[in-house]
Design brief:
It is built from eleven helices and 13 strands. It is α/β, with parallel strands linked by helices. A five-stranded mixed beta sheet has the order 1-7-6-4-5, sandwiched between helices. Helix 4 (89-97) links the parallel strand 4 (74-78) and strand 5 (103-107). 50% of the residues are buried.
């Protein structure tokens, strides 16, 4: 069989942090309220576009794999906050990297975007359409956030991650996956004012209202990820006990804890970084996966389970067979442009801009 081995990995988090205490300066909340309900302590706020975040993550993934941009046959970009819808954002990453040989496509499935992109790239390598691919999960949620709505403003942040995949004869990379969607429940997590439905309707892009029914989302998230994990494990002919590491989507610590209990997995096998970044939508699971690799949480020749869910309500789970290398082959000096602004200052700019539109 042909496999799509993961041989490179990289992440890019914007430097500006927005803490729970920062949020309390303009929302009726505090650190205890947010932490006890979500497990989040801070999140990142980007001063650049999502394509720029993705570009740096991709440069780092290529360096880790010991490859150059010319080696890339395909770029699959998962996000909901693309710089533009036409042309696609993946083509901008191609341009920034100089990856002139790469085909480019965008994938929009909200928080599962990075993982659905991993499925697309893996399938195209396995089928022989391409031999290599960059998989991206990246978001800049902050400009579109309703910063007056405490229920959602405390949850989300910005960030990016990328994986480099290449054709291999050895069993490695995604060996099974399960994808699905609760389309009948799509309205319980939606953003009004974000899309062509609102064109020429007197709205300014960025003036959004979020529908977020937390309890219903919680139930659907756990149910969707649990059934995805069960299906993926059955396909792989593995039990939950045989999984060495679980790297779940980081949307809420209570959701993670409930899913772990449902799967009957040892909590020590579960990687959690929600306290540092919050929910970065399409970037979240891939950032956690990359960080787990960097922190040696992923062992050589081990099995990794990656469950995720997102708006739509999409859900997924991937079983990855890790290879025999857990260290990057090289590094890169590619960095984001400097910014002196804090996370709170960046958010304040967004809030003030929204107020000016309304006036």
């Amino acid at each position: 069989m042909t496999y799509a081995a993961i041989t490179g990995w990289g992440k890019c988090l914007p430097p500006a942090t927005l803490s729970n205490d920062d949020l309390a300066t303009f929302l009726e909340t505090d650190d205890e309220w947010i932490t006890s309900r979500t497990g989040m302590k801070e999140r990142r706020i980007s001063h650049v576009t999502v394509s720029e975040l993705a570009y740096v993550a991709c440069a780092r993934a290529l360096a880790a794999a010991g490859k150059t941009a010319k080696d890339v046959d395909l770029i699959v970009f998962g996000s909901t906050t693309f710089d533009e819808l036409c042309p696609n954002a993946a083509s901008n990453v191609q341009r920034l990297l100089g990856a002139e040989n790469a085909a480019c496509m965008d994938v929009s499935t909200a928080c599962t975007g990075g993982m659905y992109s991993l499925s697309v790239a893996t399938s195209m390598i396995k089928s022989g359409v391409v031999k290599t691919a960059l998989v991206i999960g990246a978001e800049t949620i902050s400009p579109i956030m309703d910063w007056e709505n405490r229920d959602v403003a405390v949850l989300f942040g910005d960030g990016s991650a990328a994986l480099y995949l290449e054709q291999s004869d050895n069993e490695s990379g995604v060996i099974t996956e399960a994808l699905g969607c609760y389309g009948e429940s799509r309205d319980i997590l939606s953003v009004e004012g974000w899309g062509m439905k609102y064109a020429n309707k007197g709205r300014v892009l960025g003036q959004s209202n979020w529908a977020f029914l937390g309890q219903e989302i919680f139930k659907k998230a756990v149910a969707g990820m649990a059934q995805a994990c069960d299906k993926a494990l059955v396909k792989a002919e593995l039990s939950a006990e045989q999984i060495n590491s679980v790297v779940p989507h980081q949307a809420n610590l209570r959701i993670i804890d409930t899913l772990v209990k449902r799967l009957k997995v040892d909590k020590e096998k579960v990687f959690v970084n929600i306290h540092k970044y919050g929910n970065m939508s399409a970037a979240t699971t891939l950032v956690a996966f990359v960080e787990a690799i960097e922190e040696n949480f992923i062992a050589k020749d081990s099995y990794v389970l990656l469950p995720a869910f997102g708006g739509g309500l999409t859900w997924s789970a991937h079983v990855v067979k890790w290879g025999n290398r857990t260290h990057a082959l090289a590094t890169t000096d590619v960095e984001l442009p400097k910014s002196e602004k804090s996370g709170l200052a960046l958010v304040t700019d967004i809030i003030n801009a929204k107020k000016s539109y309304k006036s």
